[in-house]
Amino acid sequence: RVKEYHIDGFRFDLASVLCRGPDGSPLDAPPLIREIAKDSVLSRCKIIAEPWDCGGLYLVGRFPNWDRWAEWNGKYRDDLRRFIKGDPGMKGVLATRVSGSADLYQVNQRKPHHGVNFIIAHDGFTLCDLVSYNLKHNDANGEGGRDGCNDNFSWNCGVEGETNDSNVLALRSRQMKNFHVALMISQGTPMMLMGDEYGHTRYGNNNSYGHDTCINNFQWGQLAERRYGHFRFFSEMIKFRQNHPILKRDRFLSKNDVTWHEDCWDNLESKFLAFTIHDHNSGGDIYLAFNAHDYSVDAVIPPAPQQKHWNRVVDTNLESPNDIAPEGVPLTGSGYRIAPFSSILLKASP
What is the pTM of this model? Predict the structure, then answer.
């Protein structure tokens, strides 16, 4: 099929089941996984594992790989969800995840791209529902609410489900943009769910595979309505990643690649993280700050590289179109007030 249909690659659902022996016990070197990794055709494809199964064999960062298999990074999903919604004690973990999860993948000849970063997948909440529901709402599935995952690390921003409260809606919009910024600046391979670019909702249903309705059908009308707001932000952020190779390095970050503007790593109540990713070729450094507190933080912005100045590209607290300015808005002064539950991105330019 790869040769005939020019298929780029495969993602293996619940792939850990392929790492079990006849009696169900885990295998260190499962033969099928090895054969795929060594096959003369398949080894040149993208081969991606969902590194867990229904029996609880959780192999994130430990999936047998022969330096070929990539993995869905389930820890990235959970850790990013928890930081952005404001859980305490997540700042250090956030730093690890956006840096490419070296704790999981810096083994043998593996690269950052072997970790597939994601916030949302085909099952579970959509991005909109992740910031709109604390609980799953699966009554329409006919299983009495027993189906679907209960551990979603979601936050409804103050109201469960649909609302006309402008403050809640604004916070939800910020949170969706915060998630997208984090995903697009993280080292590794980003994965998005189709529909999140316009804010698709399944109305809290996190196990909706059996519905051929608006719950699952792509809503082209909503995309058109949000083309110059939510969609524009998501689109421009993707372009920004594509245009800045320092966000997608083929090696793990060294101490010279990033500066953490941080002196309280051990403070579990701190929910603010700022750092600069350095461009050693052209000086086009990128400064990022994420504020998951419910109050503003006055950040001290470090000096830009020599003969450069900072331009604001992203402030998720601003309304469209000012929330993302691809060409950048010159920054004045050495400080920036970062609003509650928001993030900023600055680019050093001549």
Answer: 0.97
Catalytic residues: 13, 50
Phi, psi of 326 (to 5 degrees): -55, -35
Long-range contact pairs involving 236-241 (C-beta distance under 8 Å, separation at least 24): 236/324, 236/326, 237/180, 237/181, 237/184, 237/314, 237/324, 238/184, 239/326, 240/184, 240/313, 240/324, 240/326, 240/345, 241/184, 241/185, 241/190
Task: Determine, yes or no, domain membership for 3.
Answer: no
Residue numbers of the domain that contains 326: 254-349
Q: How many other CB atoms are found less than 10 A from the CB of residue 242?
A: 11
Single-letter residue type at 72: W
What does residue 117 show for φ and ψ, rounded to 5 degrees? Answer: -80, 135
Quickly list DSSP for 135-168.
S---GGGTSTT-SS-S------TTSSS----HHH
CA–CA dist 199, 172 (Å, integer): 10
pLDDT digits (tens, 9 = 90+) for 82-136: 999 999 999 999 999 999 999 999 999 999 999 999 999 999 999 999 999 999 9
Tell me the pairing of strands 309-315 and 342-349.
Answer: antiparallel
109 three-class SS: coil
**What is the spatial distance between Cα 318 and Cα 338, in angstroms, rounded to a whole number?**
11
Average pLDDT over residues 164-192: 98
- Domain boundary (183, 218, 243) is at 243
Kindly state whether residues 230 and 258 are assigned to the same domain. no
